[in-house]
């Protein structure tokens, strides 16, 4: 995770298809970098997952394979062909083998890949850090740290002094470093733009240069040298705001404008485009969705009918929220286009809560944009100091975070103060501590739907408590620190595997067996 998360990189996004952002979108981004590393010419791929990690049991059912295959083909995370990416990969003549082996992975979402064509073999290891975010940690045995937010040029060489001197005199760059491994070494250049072809030609003419690899950014908001933001904790935000008297959404605009080096207007309109995608997904869900490989059918239609017939317990906002959360989750499970906010597994709670509240109150679109910006800033604090990855922090990190973010946005929509918005987020996050991640049948549907609904309804309850000036007691920054500590204490079998919780009940195992297909032809164990 970036030291300075972007609302549009780390929190509200990516726009994608698939059940899980940390599986589908992240793996696709990793594979896109692999494709660049091989100059878009891949013939054979070996993918290895550690048996002690999350991916060993979830890589197929939660979409890692699908995302990888789409990325190897150069697709975007929202490409409509993704569900059939395995077929397209085979048609492209790319051979794939997947092994579950002890690769001594420190992170539960570790991808170790060997890529080959007729001319070369390259190796890349990367991790998915949650919400679609990634970090490449090794290339060809050389330790690196790449988040996919720069143009990365790797000049493979035996000697670096001449290369670095030439580059520093010839190009605009963010950083240049000589990275050494036991067998390979390269000069790594991080820049805002790709290296000019003439510069590459001059490099290739140097005796010490073997070849050059150019990796394009995969994130929508790029990093830059000497990046500064006005604050990165809630306390710092309050200090920044002492003489400004800004609301939470305005502070979010200040932050993201500085983080992304764009204008306030661009930040606002970028979020407007995001909420249009969310709104379309809710509308699509309420028309009914169909997909063969899922556990739950289209249930939001039943809720809509019962609500219209006045057969549900009253509470217009709350019932709209439940219906919208369900619709969004059903679109996700049917491979429709959604926004991971903050993750795909928790994509229903935040938009469901904000759209449901706004529609119940008859608010215009701009108010939803403001509320989503407010939520995004709370998410920045979580991303910077805890995690959105269920594999690291349980469902607390996903739906818990979404509920805390939504609570702050709802307070803003009701005209509450900055203090009340922060209190609502703190209260909602406190209520979410320790929630485990135990997907039934290895699908991100149940108990995920119920927990998204719980997070969204928790959000509106905590918003009303904060608007009534209930005491939060524990400051937001300390709650987020506690989230990280609690996540570290949750047993690994309760962090997005099929090894604990509801996923190992007799009923769940029957569902899993019913869903089980023939293993992919790519799959092998060591």
Throw out a few tags for this protein:
single chain, 526 residues, alpha+beta, 7-stranded mixed beta sheet, 4-stranded antiparallel beta sheet, 20 helices, 45% helix
Topology:
Elements: H1 7-11, E1 15-16, H2 21-37, E2 44-49, H3 55-58, H4 64-72, H5 85-91, E3 95-100, E4 110-116, E5 121-130, E6 133-139, E7 142-146, E8 151-157, H6 161-170, E9 175-180, E10 185-191, H7 197-204, E11 209-215, H8 234-240, H9 248-260, H10 264-285, H11 300-308, H12 316-333, E12 338-339, H13 349-361, H14 365-385, H15 390-393, H16 399-413, H17 418-430, H18 448-467, H19 476-489, H20 506-515, E13 523-525
Parallel strand pairs: 2-3, 3-13
Antiparallel strand pairs: 1-12, 2-4, 4-5, 5-6, 6-7, 8-10, 8-11, 9-10
Q: Care to describe what's here?
A:
This protein has 20 helices and 13 strands. Helix content is 45%, strand content 14%. It has helices at 7-11, 21-37, 55-58, 64-72, 85-91, 161-170, 197-204, 234-240, 248-260, 264-285, 300-308, 316-333, 349-361, 365-385, 390-393, 399-413, 418-430, 448-467, 476-489, 506-515; strands at residues 15-16, 44-49, 95-100, 110-116, 121-130, 133-139, 142-146, 151-157, 175-180, 185-191, 209-215, 338-339, 523-525. It starts with 6 loop residues before the first helix and ends with a strand. The chain has 526 residues and is of the alpha+beta class. The mean pLDDT is 95. Helix 2 packs parallel to helix 4, helix 16 runs antiparallel to helix 17 (418-430) and helix 17 (418-430) runs parallel beside helix 19 (476-489). It has a 7-stranded mixed sheet with strand order 7-6-5-4-2-3-13. The longest helix is centred in the middle third of the chain and has 22 residues, at 264-285.
